[in-house]
Amino acid sequence: MTRIQANLVLLLAAAIWGGGFVAQSTAMDNIQPFWFVGLRFAIAALAVLPFAWFESRKATTPLGRRDWLAFAAVGLALFGGAITQQIGLLTTTVTNSSFLTGLYVVFVPLISVIVLRRYPHWVIWPAAAMSLTGIFLMSGGQLTNLTPGDYLTIVCAFFWGVQIILAGLFVTSTGRPLALSFAQFATCSALALSFAVPTETIGWEVIRASAAEILYVGLISSGLAFVLQVIGQRYTTAPQAAIFLSSEALFGSFLGALLLGEILPPIGYVGCAIIFMAMLLVELVPELTRRRSRSVTS
After folding, report:
1. What separation in angstroms does the CA of 158 have from each of 103, 163, 183, 200, 289?
2. Where is the EamA domain (predicted)?
């Protein structure tokens, strides 16, 4: 696969994730959040299970109890991100959700500093300020216009940041990405269903009405897009992969306008652009700095 082909694969993954925001939003017309998240990740876990089994057969070292507990911790963070995002979509738009979720690009290095004592590149600080400015403009220039769903989506971005950090740590230490994927999906589903059963109602009519959305996000958005991401990143650079994958926010905004008729105030589009620029700066500036340092030393 050429680099151009790999980047197109990553662009397709981002488009699928962008479509996932629309599916998650329309599903809320028929099914409640905990049931949706529980069923979504149950399907994803079942889809990944055969591949995780083949991976385990080829592995030279079996996973221990601590490894499975670590994978469950990733699933706990995944549950936090998925459920706050899903509940947030009840009172926010697909456009806002897609862009605010992208704040994990800023949260990841901040969490690394506080928890892991790993200090990020200097660009993270102006990028964080840009992101906050973008959120302010997305609200129409008035913080009172931010909905409870917007605030929940910011919390969701924090949980995604935790999930990304934990997944990176444990997939590196175990070398078992498919086992990790299955375990985090299964953990997330079990947690969501444990809340859904006593607090929400469900029936076959509800499942049938939201079946298309559940299958899309379970098989396509959670399953296929993950595989496309892994394949694409084998043949392209990390900065290019970040650019193409972060375009999920643009796809989410575009599809929200095209399929759901969502409209932002003019100043809101400026806010979206600023948040997107912040995400790109966080990924691109450190890489350009490293390249410049290499050329100077050589």
Report:
1. 8, 9, 21, 26, 27
2. 7-139, 148-282
Q: Scan for tokens 């995604």, then name that residue.
A: 160
Strands (E) across the chain are located at none
The pairs formed by 145-148 with CB atoms below 8 angstroms and a separation of 24 or more are 147/91, 147/92, 147/96, 148/88, 148/91
Mean pLDDT of 222-227: 76
For 251, residues 6+ apart whose C-beta sits below 8 A from its C-beta are 14, 15, 17, 18, 19, 98
Among residues 221, 202, 205, 234, the alpha carbon closest in space to that of 5 is found at: 234
Is residue 253 predicted with pLDDT exceeding 90?
no
Q: Kindly report, residue by residue over 44-101, the tens digit of the pLDDT.
A: 999 999 999 998 998 888 889 999 999 999 999 999 999 999 999 898 887 788 778 8
Write down the pTM of the prediction: 0.81
User: Using an 8 Å Cβ cutoff, are 209 and 58 in contact?
Assistant: no
Structure tokens at 237: 């650079």
Q: How far apart, in whole angstroms, are the C-alpha atoms of residue 18 and residue 250? A: 7
Q: How far apart are CA 255 and CA 232, in angstroms?
A: 23
Q: Position 111: which residue type?
A: I
For residue 93, give the 3-state DSSP assignment.
coil
Choose among 22, 6, 29, 36: nearest CA to 237: 6
- Smallest CA-to-CA distance from 90 within 26, 137, 37, 143 is with 26
- Please, are residues 148 and 93 in contact by the beta-carbon 8 Å criterion? no
| Strand runs labelled E in 152-220 | none
Tokens of 122: 């200097």
